[in-house]
Amino acid sequence: MRTGLEIAFWLSAAVVLYAYAGYPALIALAGRLWPAPAVRKKEITPAVTLLMVVHNEDECLEDKLRNALALDYPPERLEILVASDGSTDGTEAIAARFAARGVRLLALPGPRGKVAALNEAVPLARGEILVLTDARQSLAPDAVRRLVAYFADPTVGAVSGELHLLPSPGSPVEGVGLYWKYEKLIRKAESRFDSTVGVTGAFYALRKELFLPIDPRTILDDVAIPMRVALAGRRVLFAPEARAWDHVEESAAREYRRKLRTLAGNYQLVALYPALLHPLRNRLLWQLASHKLARLAVPWCLLVLFLASARLSLAGAAFHGVALTGQALFYLVAIMGWRQATLQRPLHMTSVPYAFVLLNIAATRALIGFVRGTETAAWKGGLVRVPRVVFVLSKFPCYDEVFLLREIHAVAQRIDAWIFSLRKSTERVVHAEARALLPRTLWVPYLFSLRLLRANLALLVRRPRRFLRAFGRLVATNGRSPQLLARNLVFFPKAVWLAHWALDNGVTHLHAGWASYPASAALVASELADVPFSFSGHAHDIFLDSAHLPEKIRRAEFVTTCTATNRTHLCALAPDGAAARVTVVHHGICMPAFSPSGSPAGPLPVLSVGTLNPHKGFEYLVDALARLRDEGLDFRGTIVGGGPLEASLRARVARAGLDGRVTMTGALTQAEVLPHYAHARIFVLMAQREWHWGIPNVIIEALAAGSAVITTRFGSVEELVKDGETGLLVPPKDPAALAAAIRRLAEDPALRARLALAGQTIVARDFDLERSADFYVRRFQGRPS
Asked: Up-side HSE of residue 588: CA atoms within 13 Å toward CB?
């Protein structure tokens, strides 16, 4: 027994020492021996939004706004946004008084909690860099400029400023200031090694593109947000030169309450964000476990340490008797500190023991608060739940599904959104928006996966009737198409896994990005989890094999499609009430991203973009450009995209003697394609009608960028491209007709400009990304669209 007690003693002592001394020493050593690459800071002035989420802050908001307006940052590049979460005092009136000086007020209904308000406010921010701050703290004049300098380095995703606490000497919570200095030393070392695992919630900055809504129940948003930045592959740094000031809580009770809530948030963090514990996804797992989670074990280790010392000292162990005496004296000093704090007397020498014991009592109570659910993210009172949506896709990331990516990313900036990928993606080119969504992407292997088998067995036992009914319906509705049935049966276990995850994680809606297998999987998961589902239909997924479509349309909460022609087709498949369920939602784009450049001098730029498949007709474009070269037209052609025909097309270009006249870029990210759109004056897509039904998104993008479009007649394209009005239409396999159309536009700049402007006007009116995202957000929130 004595051996067991000694093991317990030393293990407990090791945990306590590691949490508060061992880890700080190791991370400091690691930062010196293996420092991360030096950050390339530079004086830059990107558009910045200083965002304050407030609730009933009329006592300090005016001072904070005056402080913000005095910052040393170009006023035209700084937006000040105050998001009031249901304030009932004079907070909103104060913010409104500063409107003439450029302060924007976002008055939100509520209160719903800081995180819910943050989720709603961030998409409305205009800056590319968000600086999040609270109402109480004051910022140094150069604080924002110093934070922003770090973002000159593209590897940096978030930066924390340094908060200086100003205690009254000998105040009842003086030890808190010392503890905060200790914490900052750890953050500096973590930042030198790689990244910090948290930021100063009162003052930090991040790239807006990296912000995704977090669960509104989250207590520690200043840990959850930077950790998700790290999961996206960016660094989270500590900038001690960017300074803010605050006063330490003068009330020990208020400080205790704050620590209790913070430590409960640590428990909650791993429950809400299990990916943080995945060693292959979270490169900061060691820092997170050591800095945040190990401290949760300390109070229990202290208890074991004390009891083991007492028992061993009674057994005659002199060393453990000394250890017991030392612990007793330490706790006695802490009690003296508590007594002095209660009487509002200066603590002096008792401040550190008192603060340490206070922290660990709070950690013990935090576990109880977390289990009971008494610690929430609300300011005061209840918390309104917001939706948690899962998008079901065939494969994510997918290089040529940018139209879906844009919508999902825009929605994910406003509500809590996840992605379930039926197949594992092996894409080599990943767009920036997709990379930002990877931490919220779910995937499971096929049949031989323990996770898959465990979920299927659990739901078969837990909901046998629903399980068998869903399986039976899938077989019955796909029976006429053996190939479709076989593929759906392969995906059935994955749909069951999704239902299991949805039940465990509070999912409120499932939306399939395609009407084919993703919609089948979403329908199965919807039935098993009793969660509403919807889907989008686009092209081949609604025209080639529609065996299961009528059932999906009838059972979906809503259906979206991208063209009027598609809507007519879907309504005909399920005439019993489908018209009220199917809505046309165009694939939106962000118009400012596609701004054309000035008129280029020199050869006429001709562009084509798409996956290099036979049905895109790129060979006819190459042949047409060869004709134009022979006719003496001065042009430069660019073909953007990768695919199975890339090698044969390069050979075709070479055989035609177009090297130097025609450039093939290979696969590019969306950001890399934008300059090509901006430079082009004529856009060509020789789409073949046997594999095109909707409106190709590259045509929408080209019109947004101000190009005159030449394409063929197919699918729904004439809803946007009308011959002679918003573009030119040519036969699908006729290089001579295409060459003539290009020459016509080359020789008639006025016609080219008129067609481009007409097309651009329609795209700006009907294909707005914010409007498309707003439709989905409102439906997912249960509001009318």
From this structure: 22
Helix axes 252-272, 351-372, angle to 10 degrees: 50
Cα distance between residue 310 and residue 13, in whole Å: 14
DSSP 8-class letter at 18: I
Answer yes or no: are the C-beta atoms of 136 and 64 closer than 8 Å.
yes
Tens-place pLDDT, residues 288-347: 999 988 888 889 999 988 898 888 888 878 888 888 898 889 888 888 877 766 665 555
Q: Which two tokens stand for residue 619?
A: 């060979």
C-alpha torsion 197→201→207→212, nearest 10: 80
State pLDDT tens for residues 11-27. Answer: 999 999 999 999 999 99
- The 3-state DSSP class for residue 592 equals helix
Between the two ends of the chain, the Cα-to-Cα distance in Å is: 69
Q: How many CB atoms lie within 10 A of CB 776?
A: 26
Q: Cα(80)–Cα(100) distance, rounded to whole angstroms?
A: 12
- How many helices and strands in the chain, by DSSP H and E? 29, 21
More confident residue, 62 or 113: 62
Answer whether 485's CB lies under 8 Å from 479's CB: yes
| Average pLDDT, rounded, for the chain | 87
Indicate yes or no: pTM above 0.85: no
Helix, strand or coil for residue 332?
A: helix
**Beta strands across the sheet bearing 582-584:** 441-442, 416-424, 388-396, 509-512, 533-537, 559-561, 582-584
What tokens does 375 get? 């610690």
Kind of pairing, strands 129-133 and 156-165?
unpaired
The partner residues of 765 in beta bridges, in order of sequence, read none
Per the CB < 8 A criterion, the answer to whether 128 and 47 are in contact is yes
Alpha-carbon distance of 268 to 50, in angstroms, equals: 28
Lowest mean pLDDT among 328-337, 417-426, 523-532: 328-337
CA dihedral 238, 239, 243, 244 (to 10 degrees): -30
pLDDT tens by residue, 740-785: 999 999 999 999 999 999 999 999 999 999 889 989 988 998 766 5
Q: Residue 630: pLDDT above 70?
A: yes
Cα separation, 5 vs 307, in Å, equals: 9
Rounded to whole angstroms, how far apart are CA atoms 322 and 532? 64
Alpha carbons 147 and 131: distance in angstroms, whole number: 9
- What region does 632 belong to: left with phi over 0, alpha with psi -120 to 50, or beta? left
* Phi/psi of residue 585, nearest 5 degrees: -125, 105
Burial class (CB in 10 A: 0-12, 13-18, 19+), 575: exposed
In the numeric block, which tokens belong to residue 206?
Answer: 């991040």
What are 353's two structure tokens? 């023991």
Sheet of 129-133, strands arranged across:
103-108, 78-85, 48-54, 129-133, 203-207, 156-165, 235-246, 138-139
Q: What is the distance between the alpha carbons of residues 607 and 600, in angstroms, rounded to a whole number?
A: 14
Largest Cα–Cα separation, the chain: 105
Q: At what angle do helices 2-17 and 294-314 cross, to 10 degrees?
A: 140
